[in-house]
Each structure stands twice: as C-alpha cells, then as structure tokens.
From TrEMBL:
It catalyses: ATP + protein L-histidine = ADP + protein N-phospho-L-histidine. It is an enzyme of class 2 (transferase). Its EC number is 2.7.13.3. Pfam families: DUF4118, HATPase_c, HisKA. It is a multi-pass membrane protein. It comes from Aquirufa salirivi. The keyword Membrane applies. GO terms for molecular function: ATP binding. PANTHER family: SENSOR PROTEIN KDPD (PTHR45569). This is histidine kinase.
Length: 353
C-alpha cells in the first residue's frame, strides 16, 4: 500500500515518538547508548518503505529526541561530555546516511525491476508478433490462394476438387478465427471485465455436444466420453466451459498422434464439478509442467503452430469461475483435471424453484 507524502511524514514521526516513549521507560535497563541503536534501527526500517523526505525527518527527529530525552543532562539540548557530543554527531550522521542509502538502494532495485519487466514485456510481445505473423499469415494465404483458384475460369474444376478447395477455406477460416478468438479472450481476462453468464447446464448433454463440435477436427479419431451417472444440473457459464474444454481438446488433437485416443470424463467430486481430459500421448516433461499455463509459453521442440495462449486462457477462465486446474503425467499420456465449485440442482428441485 502506497501512502501519500504527507501521510508518510506523519507515520514516520509517530513511529519515532512511539519507539522513543517505549525506550523512555526502559532507560534504567538499557542505557542511553543502547537506545541510540534502537532509534537507528527504527530509522533504517522507515527508510525501507518511505521516501527521502520522511526518512530525513525521522533521522533528524530521532537524533533530537535522543539528545533531549536520553543524553545527560536529560530534558535539555546541552551535552556535557565531549564523547557524548561526538557520539550524538556520529549518530546524526549515521542516521542520515543510513536512511538515504536505504532509500537509494530501494529506488535502484525498483528501477532494475522496471527495466527487467520492460524487457520481459518486449520479449513477450516479440514472441506474440512472431507467432501471429505465422499463425495469421498462413490461413490468410491459404484462403486467398484458394479463392484465386476458384475464380480462375481457365481451370476446369470437378465437383470433388471444388469441395476439397472449399474444405481448405473452411479449415483455414476456423484456424484464423481461433487465433483471433484467443487474443480477444486473453484481452477480456487481463482487462478484468469478464462477467459470467450463468445458466443451468446438463453436463451429459454438454459433453455430447462438445464432442460433436470436434467431429471435423478429430477426423475419425476417438474421443471417448464418460459421464458419471446421476449428475445434477450445474449453474455455469456454458460459453466459458466450451472455451476451457475446447482448448484442451484442441491441444490434445494437435499434439498427439492420430492413433492416440482422447478421453473426456465428467463427474462430481466433493460437491464440485470435475472434468478430466486425458490422452495417451507423450505427456509433458516433469520440470516444465509448472510453465505450461504461462502466457505465450510453448514447449521446446513442439510442432509449429499456436501462439502459446491456449492453456493460459484455460487457466484464466477456470480461475475466473472460481475453480482450479491441474496437469499431471500418466503412463502413458497426461491428464488435465479441472474442478469448479458451482450450484447444483436435480430436475425435481429445479422445477420447484
């Protein structure tokens, strides 16, 4: 929490006075020289959090209080002994220098952090732009090339050839739409403007509809659905759920071999909706699992394609829904486990609401 400049001065003065009062009642046990170290430590602590002026005020005030309240003769600014005068001047100098050095060190650290964050941000955006330059250019080039072919009246195309070209346009358009959708979704999550549109969802029906949506992408690959019996209705944002499961299924289809089956399991565990999406592919390197949900992160040596936003969007949507997501390796393959707390209702109860 960042205090205003005036508030910092008031807090610094208050802390010094409070410490001095505590020390005042401990003078007989500590001695006035030991109290100097206590006040110096308090000044150093203030310098770790506040700006230059409050630190200078705290250092000056602590020196004056130490002189007036503790150095004999007490309750006067007169210092009898030369060694006490030297000690007071040394204290004043050390308090000022120590406070200023702490502030400068803090400012240097903040500047270094800002520079590091700026370099990281530039690196992330360069990664994003490099990925987008490929991910957007490829489908656009496919669409434009196919359209030119269809417009060329000199080419006599059969119905099968035209159907194949139209299929290519559809595939490229879906790929292009997915990349734009990922960018928009990430923007929604980072802006904090994501608002859930809740409705009662039959998860069995939702699971079948989801697999049907991926029938074209799956290309005859097996996506096995298992739904635990007697599931209640869940109050969820069905669009968000489509994004979560859709990105995970899309990843599994893209990064595993055509012979590898994919499994979608829906259940209720500890009063929470539990969705497991698994495959029997190569899995993830154990040491890289903590990184897979980071924005723009892609595993080394993966096949070209993607901007590294899919899993970070999944994590963002799961957390926006109040849930958790976990990734673990199987033998073989891997499994994403999603748990989302949600209101539930069986049909009989729902009709009475």
């Amino acid at each position: 929490m960042k205090f205003s400049h005036t508030n910092q001065i008031f807090i610094a003065v208050g802390v010094v006075f409070f410490t001095a009062i505590l020390c005042f009642f401990s003078t007989h046990f500590m001695g006035y020289r030991a109290i100097a170290f206590v006040l110096l430590m308090v000044t150093s602590l203030i310098a770790m959090f506040f700006d230059v002026v409050p630190v200078l005020v705290a250092a000056t005030l602590s020196a004056l209080i130490w002189n007036f309240w503790f150095i004999p003769p007490r309750f006067t600014f007169h210092i009898t002994y030369s060694e006490d005068l030297l000690l007071f001047l040394l204290y004043f100098f050390i308090a000022l220098v120590n406070g200023l050095l702490n502030v400068k060190i803090r400012q240097a650290e903040a500047k270094a952090r800002d520079k590091e964050e700026k370099e990281l941000t530039i690196g992330l955006y360069n990664t994003l732009l490099n990925s987008l330059s490929h991910e957007l250019r490829t489908p656009i080039a496919t669409i434009l090339g196919t359209v030119d072919t269809l417009k060329d009246e000199d080419k006599m195309l059969s119905l099968e050839q035209k159907a194949e070209l139209f299929h290519g346009i559809e595939t490229a358009s879906l790929r292009l739409n997915q990349q734009v959708e990922n960018l928009l979704n990430m923007s929604r999550l980072e802006s904090g403007n994501l608002k859930l549109s809740l409705d009662w969802v039959d998860m069995t029906e939702w699971g079948h509809q989801l697999i049907n949506k991926f029938s074209l992408d799956a290309q005859h690959r097996k996506i096995a659905l298992k739904v635990v019996n007697d599931l209640p209705l869940f109050l969820l944002d069905v669009g968000i759920m489509d994004q979560i499961a859709g990105n995970l299924l899309r990843n599994a289809l893209q990064y595993t071999a055509n012979s590898v089956p994919i499994f979608l399991r829906i259940a209720m565990e500890n009063e929470q909706l539990e969705i497991k999406i698994s495959d029997e592919g190569p899995g993830f390197p154990e040491d890289l699992i903590p990184l897979v949900f980071d924005k723009f992160y892609r595993l080394p040596h993966t096949i070209p394609g993607g901007t590294g936003l899919g899993l970070s969007i999944v994590k963002g949507y799961v957390e926006a829904s109040g849930g958790t997501i976990r990734l673990r390796n199987l033998n073989p393959g891997c499994e994403f486990i999603i748990r989302i707390p949600a209101r539930t209702s069986y049909v009989n109860y729902l009709k009475n609401e």
